[in-house]
Amino acid sequence: MRADGWVGRFGAALLGSALLAVPWFGSGYLVRFLTTLFMFAVLAKAWNLIGGLAGYPSFGNVAFFGIGAYTTGILMVRLGWPFGPSLAAAGLAGALFAVAIGLPVLRLRGHYFAVATFATAEAMREIVNNLTDLTGGGKGLSLPLMAGGARAIGVYFYYLMLALLVAATATTALVLRVRLGYGLLALREDEEAAAVTGIDTTRYKVVAFALSALLTGLAGGIYAYWLTYIDPTNVFDVVISVTMLVMVLLGGTGTFWGPAVGAAILMGMTEFLWSRFLELHAAFLGAIIILVVLFLPDGLVEMARQGPRGWSPARLRENLRRYSV
């Protein structure tokens, strides 16, 4: 095995051990912050399957997040289901919804696809908002409280969200190693050429969309029970979709580590600004998008691989000329 392979494995093992130990030594604030970070890392990795690998930039992945949250909430509150089966149903509901809308929507490309997915998420929010007898409408839905103290509950959801992040990482690794991953990369580069070579582009896109929705729905289900209260504005917020996109762009679109790296950096910077400049959060998010698109179109992970050359002023000017109008 190559030396860099050993270094990567050792680093991953060290990081994993540190994350497992955090609840034993870290504060409640740190546990909550990292739980939120894990959730957004999952969302970014899920978005990367369709937006990064397949090249279909979705602005509606928050629909799967909201569907997962409300599936869990409705099953627990209205039908009295335990959390485990409700969470499994949340992931399944997200995947089935992705297949249902993916078959027509994935025939669109570029900004048409982005607008269609955005409209789908907005429509789902309004539907949920009007199904008052089932979802509670604008009043929201309160889930049962989990037994145990605040510390124990926080640790439980910390490990649960960490486990989902591990599952999302394993899913990405598996996709990149099998025919599905090669097919997605091929259609991202040239969909017509991929179809000519015999790749069933529609099936590959729908499968990637369903996998993305499955992981996003599971994250939404965990989030719902963690907060014990959800409403349409909260779980169908378009800012969640934009945040996924920014994290992937920042870390590196279509890369293995990029979404997690982008999530960690953006969450850290956002937490810093929230604690000091609360009103600047939206402006900060917009500025990050502009700077990343203009100067770091390949993301931080790819720039780091290139070494000093990737960060040279000449390379940054080249990116600016290439992506400026």
Keywords:
ABC transporter involved in vitamin B12 uptake, BtuC; single chain; 325 residues; 2 domains; mainly alpha; 2 strands; 1% strand
CATH fold field value of the largest domain:
ABC transporter involved in vitamin B12 uptake, BtuC
What ranges have pLDDT less than 50 throughout 5 or more consecutive residues?
Answer: none
Largest sheet: 2 strands, antiparallel
- The quaternary state of the protein chains shown equals single chain
Figure out the total of helices: 16
Q: What is the average per-residue confidence, as pLDDT, rounded to a whole number?
A: 88
Structural class: mainly alpha
CATH architecture of the largest domain: Orthogonal Bundle
Q: How would you describe this structure to a colleague?
A:
There is one protein chain. This protein is an all-alpha fold and 325 residues long. It has 2 domains: 26-236, ABC transporter involved in vitamin B12 uptake, BtuC (Orthogonal Bundle); 238-325, no CATH class. The protein has 16 helices and 2 strands. A two-stranded antiparallel ribbon has the order 1-2. Helix 2 (28-53) packs antiparallel against helix 10 and helix 12 packs parallel to helix 14.
Q: Outline of this structure?
A:
With 325 residues, the protein is mainly α.
What layout of secondary structure does this protein have?
Blueprint: H1 3-25, H2 28-53, H3 62-78, H4 83-105, H5 110-130, H6 132-135, E1 141-142, H7 150-177, H8 179-189, H9 191-196, H10 201-227, E2 229-230, H11 232-235, H12 238-251, H13 258-276, H14 281-295, H15 299-305, H16 313-323
Antiparallel strand pairs: 1-2
Helix pairs in contact: 2-7, 2-10, 2-12, 2-13, 3-4, 3-5, 3-10, 4-10, 7-8, 7-10, 8-10, 12-13, 12-14, 12-15
